[in-house]
Amino acid sequence: MMNGRSYVRNFKSVLKSICYLSKELIIPVSFVEVAPEIQFNPRYNYFFKDCVEAIKDEQIPYHGGKLEPTINVLCCCSFGMKFIFVMVGWKGTTNDLRVILEMIQNLDNHFLIPPKAKYYLADSGYTNIPSFLSPYHGERYQLCDYRGQQTPHGPKELFNYTHS
């Protein structure tokens, strides 16, 4: 059984290896092409024809010494469910906006900002900022919120339902 320090050392070593391999396995997005999952689906094309990819933030727990710390993992996926960008390393308690600003501002991340009028679809943890479109706050968003009801009420709920 490993002690806390060797666990963290091994975790960091594996994480560095994954980040190194990610340059080979994670393919950047093309801002020119519309994802076929959107382009050929009239249900999504109307709302998201200028969306380039989706960004989701997950807090994944791992066991440390006495406590259970978490770490933020920001993933950017194509609509074909392939990773195109991954950023790891912020504490789980870090605000999502701070993580996304780090992703954009730190040139070492090699994150591609879409051209004007194109955007990434972001989950409800993010706020709307240029190049990132999140759902309306204060409206139903999760698919499970719509169970038992026929249709979304109003344009904002319809957008959130389609977004989710």
> How far apart lie the N and C ends?
42 Å
Q: What would you call the shape? A: globular
Number of strands: 5
Q: Mean pLDDT, rounded to whole units?
A: 76
- The amount of beta strand, in percent, is 15-25%
Strand order of the main beta sheet, please? Answer: 3-2-1-4-5
How many helices does DSSP assign?
5
Tally of discrete structural domains: 1
> Helix and strand succession?
HHHEEEHEEH
Q: What is the helix content?
A: 25-40%
What ranges have pLDDT less than 50 throughout 5 or more consecutive residues?
Answer: 61-66
Structural class: alpha/beta
Major sheet characteristics: 5 strands, mixed
Rg of Cα set = 18 Å
How would you explain this protein's 3D organization?
32% of the residues lie in helices and 21% in strands. It is of the alpha/beta class and 164 residues long. Strands 3-2-1-4-5 form a five-stranded mixed sheet, with helices on both faces. Mean pLDDT is 76; it is low at 61-66.
